[in-house]
Write a structure and sequence with these properties.
Length: 576
């Protein structure tokens, strides 16, 4: 492709709206343009990369035995009401009415639609296992779309759905998709980790996220330095050494005045105590029920763990009026003794000690010498807190490190969550009706462009892996007014096209410095530089965009020289 005929509107300055590296570079390199908040148009270079990622995903899905289909974007509310998600999904679901006043939504995902499709067609155990997938635009009305393609409202997604007759078959389907995802992210040249994850609004009993390691990632993941364990922070388990709390006589509780000490930090300063000797009492409205969660004062509550333990649909912090009603005190003085709530759930770590300090459910007052077993009615103990780097791996006991990641894929074992409520059933070999067991598997294809750039860039611009770059080679005619140079550049352009190599030929009359900057900005993995001076010496210059290494290739036997150099550049990516 000749640059003079290609639409590549690069920018010298970074738009003020861009926050992260990928967003800045995608805009500057002329790959995307913003239409409105969280919604982008793909320009020719951006679309080429999007299509290449889609093709890799498509090939691996096909290799895993999945069958490609395409389902509607607009979905009727009736299907979502069957599963109960019409109300549960929340404001991210963009709802609308047609001219007949019937409710619809723009699909954020397709569990309902695909279940409806297959329940109409699949009636026998002989028709399964079955796995179908699509690559399609989705819409989620994010409250704060940001970071360009990393968290947009409209995005391109691959979503697949498996249908099996039993748990054993569902496990095999899950493993096949897990392996396919491993192959996809490896082929994309990404540094990634599959991590145990919470299933969220999709539901199901088991799931893994595929996280792209990047400092700008929105998610934090816990990774064992010794084994393969990795988990999203919401899912990461906290384990303790198997030891019992040393039983000791604890003095009867004592009230102490603590004026204007609403936080743990203020309390510890006032009482000159360590934060690990305090308990935070956090109050929630859980599906209309008053619930308290207890954790050590220096720890952070994992709300997802609490929500999952209670099997709750809605979990919200208590408002000011609820706090005052349940505690008879203003915010900041709640404690587990004589607390007017339905349930008190305590973190396991609190079992390892006693003689705590808590709120007294009384203004400007705390209690000393709290023994949870003696003084409080605890409904249950469970793992409630966020893991830290001071904790050990729940699998092998190794050291834990916390890293930032970008969620780019998610696989779910759904079980019968959708098939049961939508009556997706089949007849087994005995003619008895059984419920289909499902799985669901998504990849954010447009997000993968941003994720790749977050991992592969420098101060000059993008550094695309060869397999997803818009073009493989940037051919730069550095002295376009020189007839000899232009002839040689045209010859090389024709040669590369004949070899089936995708090349972007900068045949414009811009200065050499501008051409260098634009080539580095777009990040094509290889550059061929054709100038009058080098040609006089019987050579052309070439550059590996990833390493910055420059070499000289002799014009004699140019075809073989270019191919050998190209193989070397591609190999440098495979080794990294």
């Amino acid at each position: 492709m000749r640059l003079s005929k290609f639409y590549l509107p690069t920018l010298k300055e970074t738009p003020a709206e861009a926050e992260v590296v990928s967003h800045k570079l995608l805009l500057r390199a002329g790959m995307i343009r913003k239409l409105t908040a969280g919604i982008y148009s793909y320009l020719p270079a951006g679309l080429r990369t999007l299509n290449k990622i889609s093709q890799i995903v498509r090939e691996e899905m096909d290799n895993a035995g999945a069958l490609e289909i395409l389902m509607p974007t607009v979905q009727p509310a009736d299907l979502w009401k069957e599963t109960g998600r019409w109300d549960f999904y929340g404001k991210e679901l963009l709802r609308m009415k047609d001219r007949h006043d019937r409710d619809y939504c723009l699909g954020p995902t397709h569990e309902e639609v695909v279940t409806d499709l297959l329940r109409r067609e699949v009636r026998s155990y002989k028709q399964m296992p079955l796995n179908v997938y699509q690559i399609q635009t989705k819409f989620r009305d994010e409250i704060r779309p940001r970071f360009g393609l990393m968290r947009g409202r409209e995005f391109l997604m691959k979503d697949a759905y498996s249908f099996d007759i039993n748990e054993e078959g569902a496990d095999k389907s899950y493993k096949a998709m897990y392996d396919a995802y491993m192959a996809i992210f490896t082929r994309l040249g990404l540094d990634f980790r599959p991590v145990e994850a919470d299933s969220g609004s999709i539901g199901g009993s088991f799931s893994h996220e595929f996280m792209i390691i990047a400092d700008t990632g929105e998610d934090t993941i816990a990774i064992c330095e010794n084994c393969t364990y990795a988990a999203n922070l919401e899912k990461a388990e906290v384990v303790y050494a198997k030891k019992e709390c040393v039983k000791k006589e604890v003095t009867q509780t004592e009230e102490v005045l603590t004026p204007d000490t609403h936080t743990i930090a203020e309390l510890c300063t006032f009482l000159e105590c360590a934060p690990e000797k305090t308990i935070k009492t956090l109050l929630f409205n859980v599906d209309g029920e008053a619930v308290a969660a207890l954790i050590r004062g220096d720890r952070e509550l994992n709300e997802i763990k609490l929500k999952n333990f209670l099997n709750a649909t809605e979990l919200e912090f208590a408002n000011k009026a609820e706090v005052e009603t349940w505690t008879n005190a203003p915010t900041g003085f709640a404690g587990p003794k004589n607390l007017s709530v339905s349930k008190i759930i305590a973190d396991n770590e609190l079992l390892l000690d006693t003689d705590y300090i808590t709120g007294a459910n009384k203004k400007d007052t705390h209690l000393l010498h709290i023994d949870l077993e003696r003084d409080c009615t605890i409904t249950a103990y469970t793992d409630l807190r966020v893991i830290t780097e001071d904790d050990s791996c729940p699998r092998c006991g190794g050291a834990i490190s916390l890293k930032k990641g970008i969620e780019a894929g998610h696989v779910f074992k759904l079980g019968t969550k959708y098939s049961k409520c939508m009556n997706a059933a089949y007849l087994d070999e005995n003619g008895k009706e059984q419920t289909i067991i499902m799985g669901c598997y998504g990849i954010g294809i447009s997000r993968l462009i941003a994720a790749s750039i977050e991992q592969n860039h420098d101060e000059h611009g993008i550094i695309f892996p060869p397999q997803i770059a818009p073009f493989e080679i940037a051919l730069l005619n550095l002295t376009p007014k020189d007839e000899k140079t232009s002839e040689k550049a045209e010859e090389i352009y024709t040669l590369l096209q004949g070899l089936g190599i995708e090349v972007l030929y900068d045949d414009t009359t811009e200065r050499a410095g501008v051409k260098f900057n634009n080539a580095d900005l777009l990040g094509l993995p290889m550059q061929i530089l054709v100038g009058a001076k080098s040609l006089d010496n019987g050579i052309i210059e070439v550059k590996n965009r990833k390493t910055g290494e420059k070499n000289e290739l002799k014009i004699d036997n140019l075809r073989e020289n270019i191919l050998n150099w190209r193989d070397t550049v591609i190999l440098s990516w495979k080794k990294s």
